[in-house]
Amino acid sequence: MHLETNIVRGADYFEPRTGALAAPIYQSASFRHPGLGESTGFDYSRVCNPTRGVVERAMALMEGGKWALAFATGMGAISAMVKVFAPGDHIIVSEDLYGGSYRLLHDYYANYGFLFSFVDTSDFSKIVGATRPETKAIFIETPSNPMMKVSDIRRCAEYIHTRGGLLVTDNTFCTPYFQNPLRLGSDFVIHSGTKYLAGHNDTLSGFIVHSNEDYGEKLLDIQKSEGASLSPFDAFLTLRGIKTLALRMERHQANAERVAQWLRAQPQVEKVFYTGFPDHPQYELSQRQARGHNGMVSFYVKDAGDVATLLKRLKLILFAESLGGVESLITYPLVQTHSAIPESMRLSAGVNERLVRLSIGIEHPDDLIADLAQAMTG
Ligand SMILES: *Cc1c(COP(=O)(O)O)cnc(C)c1O
Questions:
Q1: 96 CB less than 6 Å from ligand 1?
Q2: How far apart are CA 90 and CA 133, in angstroms?
Q3: CATH 3.40.640.10 domain range(s) in the chain
Q4: Active-site entry in 195, 248, 251, 354
Q5: Domain spanning 3-242: which CATH class is it, in words?
Q6: Does the model's pTM come out above 0.90?
Q7: Exposed site from 127, 166, 345, 350, fewest CB < 10 Å?
């Protein structure tokens, strides 16, 4: 089947017992065993739940993986992923990444003996330079958040595989509609399902997708032990969102392109970061490894004093954290998503007081541009 069909229909098509088209919400913590040594395949919902199973199979299908594990949040998925490794292991991580991921790795896992190097993974020489004998993995976010840098998935995979390590790719920004890291050699794919996948700013979820026989059992055991499994209702909402992913991503992409072009022509704007610009530094690479661009556009205003006015005056574009939903949002990474990142690292990544990030929704692009225009010119 084509990707669009898999996105709408998932792996299950309908529920076999009743024929229900929408996945029933199995809001049950526990499941009766028919007898000693017998099971329906379900016993306790932290471990396994029928509704969660439907979204897991849909995610595996879309990403071209054998298995998917669904978590309560993207952070739950990342936390489980790190536990595949052991204290003393070294992991090279994109320096320009979701602030919460940095906080989890740097403020928490580093205290338990995990070693991290945060580098610009869009520059391959920086990965080579950071490699140590104990390097066990590379963790990339591509495109990155909020600077839209693109890392070479295939090259990272080949490099770390020659050293016996693993590649983990956070594919939240592109979604499986535009990019499939497993097909490019990544061992694991991470998603915050909260963003484009669920797509409506109404639920949180997270995923790990993979085809790795060696770590499959371990990941299931980590999920079962940690307990950050996706709830049946949130699995239902995520599934419902996913059905329109292809349509939404096309519209996000078209709208973002319009807005990015417009922003670029504004005198108050110094620079626009958007992976769809042919003069983006990794445009060729994007064209090779992804099938499109998402709805994310960041930009520097010339005068930092303009940021507060912009955030206050925008009416349609909401000043709020998060991304990937149908509503357009504006974020100020310095104080929101990236506040946990130390100043020197933030600045070296380019996250300064003049940077704002837009998550372009699926409204009419003219209305979005008009809103930006009134907010910028007053
Ligand atoms: C939001 C986000 C996360 C964290 O996901 P939650 O669902 O908020 O826990 C991880 N990675 C990226 C790229 C994100 O945008």
A1: no
A2: 9
A3: 3-242
A4: 195
A5: alpha beta
A6: yes
A7: 345
Pocket test for ligand 1, best of 141, 194, 337, 359 (most atoms within 8 A of CB): 194
The first and second tokens of residue 15, run together, are 């529920």
pLDDT interval class at 48 (50, 70, 90): very high
The model's pLDDT over 254-304, given as tens digits with 9 standing for 90+, comes to 999 999 999 999 999 999 999 999 999 999 999 999 999 999 999 999 999
> Which of 142, 179, 195, 237 gets mutated to test ligand 1 (max ligand atoms within 8 A of its CB)?
195
Q: Does the active-site annotation cover 126?
A: no
Q: Return all residues near 109 (Cβ < 8 A) that are at least 6 apart.
A: 82, 116
Residue 69, pLDDT above cutoff 70: yes
The total of other beta-carbon atoms located within 10 Å of residue 132's CB is 10
192 Cα to the center of ligand 1, angstroms? 5
CATH classification for the domain delimited by 246-377, as one of 1.10.357.10, 2.60.40.1250, 3.40.930.10, 3.90.1150.10: 3.90.1150.10
| Catalytic status, residue 46 | yes
d(CA 372, CA 307): 12
Separation of alpha carbons 282 and 81, rounded Å: 27
